[in-house]
Design a protein that fits this description.
With 87 residues, the chain is of the alpha+beta class. The protein has a single domain, classed as 3-Layer(aba) Sandwich (GIY-YIG endonuclease). It has five helices and three strands, in the order ββααβααα. It has a three-stranded antiparallel sheet with strand order 2-1-3, sandwiched between helices. The longest helix is centred in the C-terminal third of the chain and has 12 residues. It is globular. Pfam families: GIY-YIG.
């Protein structure tokens, strides 16, 4: 089981990643042991998680979300399906 997640950073930016353990990975990001970006932009909270059956599907979804605009990511986080379709 893998998860795609979106984190909120101190500077207001959104960070998207994948893991098989969201809590552990969030702690790694908080402690400066996560990705390069989160070492300089400290994480504040987990805004969104999505479950996937395997790593391949999680990686594909992560790649898709990373290409989205901030507005579309926010619509996903708020689970606003109508707005998501429009963006």
């Amino acid at each position: 089981m893998y998860f795609v997640y979106i984190l909120k950073c101190e500077n207001g930016s959104l960070y998207t990643g994948i893991t098989n353990d969201v809590t552990r990975r969030f702690e790694e990001h908080k402690n400066g042991k996560g990705g390069r970006y989160t070492r300089s932009s400290k994480v504040v909270s987990i805004l969104y998680t999505e479950e996937h059956p395997d790593k391949s599907s999680a990686l594909k979804r992560e790649s898709q979300i990373k290409k989205w605009t901030r507005a579309k990511k926010k619509a996903l986080i708020s689970r606003d399906k109508e707005l998501l379709k429009k963006l």
